[in-house]
Each structure stands twice: as C-alpha cells, then as structure tokens.
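assembly run, all chains below
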Amino acid sequence: MPDNNIPVTDVTASPGPASPTRRNFIKNTGITTASLVGTAALVTGSDEAKATASWAEHFQGNYRLMTDEEKQEAIDRLEKRYSLEYDKKVTVDGTEAQEGVLFGYALNIQKCIGCRRCAKACVEENNQSRGPDQEIEWIRVLKMEKGEFTRDKLNDGYPGDYGIQVGGNAYSAAGVVLEGEHYYEPEKVPESDSHYMPIACMQCEKPPCVKVCPVRTTYREPDGPVVVDYNWCIGCRMCIGACPYWARRFNWGEPNLPKEEMNPNTHYLGNRPRMKGVVEKCTFCIQRTRHGRYPACVEVCPVGARKFGNLLDPESEIRKVLDRKRVFRLKAEANTYPKFFYYAD
Amino acid sequence: MATFFRFCFDYIAYVLKGDKTYWLWLGFLFLLLIPWGYGNYMQFTHGMIVTGLTDQVSWGLYLANFVFLVGVAAGAVTVVFPAYVYKFEPLHKVTVLGEMLAIAAVVMCILFVLSHMGRPDRLWHMVPVIGIFNFPHSMLTWDTLVLVVYGILNFIGGFYYLYQKYNGRPLNNLWYLPLIFVSIVWAFSIHTVTAFLINTMPARPMWHHGMMPIRFISTAFAAGPCLIIIVFLVIREKTKLWIEDAAINMLSTIVTACLGVALFLTFSEIVTELYHPTEHSGGVQYLMFGKHGLNNLVPWFWTSLAALVIGFCLLLVPSIRKNHDNLPYICTMVFFGIWVEKGMGLLIPGSIPTPIGEFTQYSPTLIEIFNCLGNWAVGFIILTILLKGAIGVLVGDIKNTEAITEENTEKSTEATGELATGGAS
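ok done. output:
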C-alpha cells in the first residue's frame, strides 16, 4: 500500500506559482482591488472589516446554544467576511432541521463502478481544501480486489510437520478484506478484477465521535446528520480517533480554496469555508438537502448507485430500498447504527 | 500575610543563588527554549501542517509524551505512598520532593496537550461556564479534571509543608493527612483515566482492551521512581541534603516489582494478539515486525523491549540494585525504555492501520522535536527551581529568621522535631 503521508511543506511560507495559497489570494486580492479602484482607503476598510469580523468570531459561543439573534449575527458576520475574501456574494444559510425528517442514505455496491465522480463532486460542492499540499476528500472509494485461488497452491495449506497451517490458498484475499485500496489509478473503470465500496461519514445514530468531543462542537442534528461547528472546534482530534469509519478530516494547514472554485451557497454547519486547525466531515450536503435537493454525490453518480431520502417517509425511495433490497451496515459490530446503508439488488 | 511575602522573597532569593553547575544546567535548558519558540511560532501561524501528522496518524509525538508524563506525575506517589501508608521514615523526610516532581510533570502534560491542539487559542471553549465542558461524556474532560486537581493537590500539599517548615511551625494534620491520602488515590486515577482516554475507542483495536489501565500504572510506577532515583542521587551529590540509602533502595525495589509486572503484561498482550492474529492485530504486527514493507517502529520496539528486559534482570540482583554508582545508568535505561514503549510502542501504532485498514507511517518533523524538547525543558526548569527551593527549606537554608528570634530557640527546635514525625504519628 502506498505511503500517503501528506507532504509536510510549509504552504504559507513557500507558495509555488502553481499552487497559490489562500493567504496569498487574500494578499493579491488586496493589491488588485487597490490598483483597480485606486484608493488605499478601500483596502484599509475591507481589511478592517475582515479583522473586525474575525475578531468577533473569536468570542462567539457554541452555535447550537446561540439565540436566534446571535445565530443571525454570526451568519451576517461570516457572509461579510467570506464575500470580501472570495470576491463574490457568499450566502451562509442557517436553515434548521424540519420536523418529521430523518435523512438516510443507501449505496448499491453492485452498481458502483469506482469512477469517483462522487468524491470530486463532493469537493466542488463542499469547499474542501484542494491539493497538492492539503487535499481533503470526504468520500473515499475502496477498491476491493477479487481473490485468486489456484490449483498449484492446493496442498500448501495442509498442516505440515508441525501441524501448522502455513499458507496456500487460505492466504488469498476473497475480496472482502477491510484493507481497501483507495489510491487506485486505472485507465478505465470498472476494472475486471475488482469491485468498489465507497465510504464517507455514516451519520451514525450513536456516533462515537460526538461522545468523545470535550466541547460538544460536533453533534447530531435532529434530522440526522452529524455536524461540526467549525468555530467552536479546539482541534484535539479525539473524534478522529473515535471514528470507526475514518470519516473525519483535519485542516492541518490553512485550507487552500481558490476563489473561482469556491461554492458561494453555504450552510453554517455545512460547506462554509473552514479555517486551519479544525475537523470537518460529510454533512449529507446539509446546504442542499434541507432545501429538498439531493446531495451532490447522489446527483452526480452516473450509474444511480446512490439513493437518498427521508427515512420517516414510508413512500420515499430510501425506504423502498431498505424494505425490498438486501441491506447491510458497514461494521455493524461497532454498534454505531449508521444511517448510511449498503445494498445489493 | 507579611510572613507569606517574606517566604516568597526568601524562596526566590535562594533559588537565584547557585553555583556554576546550577547555572550551566539552567542555561542549557533555557537554550532549548530558542528552537521551542521558533517551533511554536511556526505551528501557531501555519497550523499543524508543520508536523508529520496526517489524517491517517493524527496523534503523534505530543500525545505520546503527554501519556508518558502523566505516568511520571503519577509515579511521584511511589515516594508518598511508602512514607505515609507504611510510615517509611527515610522517604517521609523527602516526600515533598516527590510532590515537586508531580507538579512539574503536570505542567509538562498541559504543555504537551496544548502542543497537540489544533486551536490552542480556543482552549477557553473547554472552561465550564464560559465554554462547554462535556462532562461526564467525554473522557478528555475526565482527564483534564483529574490532572488539574492532581496538580493542585500536590501544589497545596507541597507548599503548605514547606511554608510550615519555613516558619518552624507544626503541620495541621487534621486536614494535611486527609489531603495526602486523597492525593495518593488521585495519583492512581490520573493514569487510569489517561488509559481510559484511549482504550474506550473500539475504532482503535490495539488500545481497546481492559488491560490498558493496569499496564499504564505498572509502567508509570517504574518510570516515575526511575527519574526520582536519578534526581535523588544528584541531590545527594550536589546539595547539603542527604537522602538515605534506604530511601533509594526502597524506590529501586518498587521499580523492579513494577517493571516485572509491566513486562508480564506486555508478554500477555503479545501472546493474545499473535497466537491467532486477526485484522485487529495489525498494529502489534506492524510494531513488532513491520507490515507490507513498512517498518519504522520495529527498531524502537525491540530496543525498548531489550532495555526493559535487561534493566529488569539487572535490578533483580540485590548487589547491583543497591550499588548507587550503577543505578543511575540502569534507571536512565529503564526510563528511556518506557518512554519509547508509551510513544513508539503504543500511541503511534494505535493509529496504524487506520480503521479502514490503511498502513501509513508517521515520522515527526524537526519542529515537533523542537517543541517536544522545549516542553521538556520548561518542565525541567520548573522542576529544578522547585527542588532547589524545597531543598533550601528542608536543610534550613530558607527559614523565617524573625520567627525564630521571636520565639525561644528551644521551642522552635521542638516544633521542627514534631514536624519531622508529625505525619507519621
């Protein structure tokens, strides 16, 4: 398996021309605006506004415990700061969960071809940091190789002189080992010797990550998704340790989110731009799904392997899948009760 | 109140006096703070990206040192326990030194947690009332609580003792003794809870077993007294305070016993994991033999195991154990062995493989090493100052001269005499 250490490069100190960092962008923005408008006052003004906004952000409380007015204040502050930073009108949504809704997800492993369009669409939608210094993807597609059983190894597994099973066909993968390879780079998918198993946050009903958080910055929303208040996270990474599905990502450095690629339709608990030193994860595209849209990964899947809907609605597609297909949960033995299901036809 | 200020003044004045070795030692420690400052600056401005940590291995050297130092803090109880529970006089006279070590170790623990945090500027989010303290759900809040309280208990216990001794007054055993006994129990709790911090996560099978707390305690009660023995031998060499042979021999006996238990537990774990290795044994396999061609930790594991086994065998022989010329070397070896065992042997392989079976290696960057050395240096500066002051009081170099002139000399000697036996009676 390849060694996937994130290269330890100093992003902010040595930005290559090919990979401008966000900080650089902020600087460049300042300079271009200044030369365009020709007034130094505006630059100072915008810098000041940014500084005031981020200063006030330092003292805000936990989002869940804010009053409605405080929430609105926090949102206004963020909208102002993001709009200045990304040079476009950025909206930060604060839509609450709807009564009678519990989001669930189902993935047809029989159909998945491992194209990873879901992972890419997710990054574009959810404003993750882009590579190469720090590439964050919430969806990873595991390639499961099919096992190979050969006639010439038939006797290798037979207990030898010491009565010990020493090898042979018994040691071949059968295709269901949880040592999924997620760095595969084929010319074409699907590959004939493999099948694929995409993973992301399972949005557990009993999430171990929520329990271990010392400051309750991560919690389950009433409509199901487990979210993070990025402004409250202290970066202790207990949740990363506790997650059995390796679904959480950390912003090791300042995220690298180019202005032109930034998605301006954001939600406070979802895809708004993050800062360095905090944890992030899949939220079932809370900014879309709370307005009746599908998550980006569901929308983009070319084979229709991904299904999403309201688990409390007996007529929803997701409920029909759960009722009629062969469904399982990944690592059910961990007793976390995911709302992300796998199924086969 | 005036007496209190006089105590502080005398204490500081004494700490600022020292011979060449004292200042060379402190100078060396202060020198380590230069790269520390640089490392902290880099990490604070650029984020954790300057470390070798990844989403795969997100806990590294900082937390490894934290876990180890909680053990050292708890290990201070090996001085307090025999002194107060078994009324062991040679250690009873120097109990306060153990408490000073505990204070310094707790400070180091807090520094390492701060280094580990992605957003140390948001630490206040954890403070009850102004922030949210997720108690009792989050094990990290338990750990914070027991550690801070342990530090406070030792601070009060140690400095109350020194203050009374300074004034030549007897201790008020009505509350002092209960405090000491609470702090003894508390010492066990800090390392137990630190074990719970990592072994309550089924996502990390290498840690997820019930043997963890006792393994932590046994290694702690070996590593802690190792450091104390070295400190005691240095004190005997460099200061007027004479620590009896019996005290040191008692500590080396404790090291031997606890090290034996620790090795036995390690052995039990290896047999359990490897007799029929499952996917959950990946961490131990990677640690001991390497896996998929990745073997960063293999030399560390075997070096540590060799150090501990050799150390244990040597300590078993009474003539070697009681030879105070060799003892510091053996203690250094064991201390180092346990440090490796806690870090490279337990904390790092716990994240390898990841919960989805990916093997990723971790090696710390220079900045991480700078920050670790700096945190240790701060701890040792505090330890040196605390010990220097405490020794000054114990040998009578720091004392309230006015109190003695006020009362008659005979009475004050009586009081001091009572102080020495006060705890035991």
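Residues 407-425 of chain B have pLDDT under 50 and may be disordered.

DSSP finds 18 helices and no strands in chain B.

not gonna interpret more than that til we talk
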